[in-house]
Design a protein that fits this description.
- The chain has 134 residues and is α+β, with helices and mostly antiparallel strands.
- Helix content is 31%, strand content 43%.
- The longest helix is centred in the N-terminal third of the chain and has 28 residues.
């Protein structure tokens, strides 16, 4: 009972506890927001900033296949996908390009690229898209 009288209700000791709980809740909220952003697919984030997006890709032996989509409100002519081939240490091995054709707004198309001999050691890929806009 003597301890209860020494620490008044709502005193400094109580405020310290509340501020620590508030900070802890804030940190948990930031972590939840960041983890939600990380689990979002890479192409979904790119779609808001780019008009042509490579949605997916897969490698079959010496062939790289993928899908590109036009998120713009305009039509795209002569759509081209440029593939940068990277080794395990993310060093560039070279680039190749494939012409997809024309894509209207909202359309998507598949593409296929025969991987050149010097790019076959690639472990990763980076994509760049180009088009003539109407």
């Amino acid at each position: 009972m003597a301890n209860a009288a020494a620490d008044p209700v709502g005193g400094v000791g109580d405020m310290g506890l509340h501020s620590r709980i508030g900070r802890g809740a804030g940190i948990v909220a930031v972590i939840a927001i960041l983890s939600g952003a990380v689990t979002q697919p890479a192409w979904a984030a790119a779609a808001t900033t780019r008009d042509l997006v490579v949605l997916d890709h897969e490698r079959w032996l010496d062939t790289l296949k993928g899908t590109v989509k036009n998120y713009s409100k305009r039509s795209a002519r002569d759509v081209t996908v440029i593939v940068k081939f990277l080794d395990k240490k993310k060093r560039a091995l070279g680039t190749q390009r494939v012409t997809v054709g024309d894509l209207r707004s909202g359309d998507q198309a598949s593409w296929s690229l025969a991987i050149g001999e010097k790019h076959r050691a690639a472990a990763q890929y980076q994509f760049e898209t180009h088009a003539i806009w109407e």
